[in-house]
Amino acid sequence: MHYCYRSGIDIITSILNTANGSGVKQLEILDRSRLTHKIFRKYLYLILQFGLIEHFQLQGRYKTTEKGIQFLYIYDEIKNLTQ
Predict the structure, then answer these.
(1) pLDDT beneath 50: ranges in the chain
(2) Which domain holds residue 15?
């Protein structure tokens, strides 16, 4: 398996993009974002702390919050400016 370096911000945006919508389970985030459980946990703590994602424990699902969606929008704008 080929691994490439991704910055923390790239990992965060990958998690938020995956969880954007009706909510997804952790395994789906791990698969789609190509993350190990250890790295997912590290960044999950941060994005939960900043209110960018919410966790619905009873359903075992994660969903990007409105603040997280705004973060993704701003990130895309900055990315477009720097290309």
Answers:
(1) 1
(2) 8-81
